[in-house]
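Appendix C. Worked example: Cation:proton antiporter
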Amino acid sequence: MSAGELAALALLTGVFVPGVWMASRGAARRRLVGLEFAGVGAVATLMVLAVSWRQDWTLIVALVLALITFPGTLVYTRLLASEP
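Step 2, the predicted output written as structure tokens:
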């Protein structure tokens, strides 16, 4: 296992898993924070793996995920705005 793969594993266990945990429990605003946290963890993990494996074309996956995560959060925030 290379250093990049270990870094990706550390990102998954340190950022992505707690983000998924936060997104699956609690109040709606806390779930939104967990969703963003997990999204950042997923993008960072994919970027580290792409650099570690020296395959530039896989950076497209991280870029698309980053572009999709932001509008999804905006939609979720708009749905929360109607909540008292």
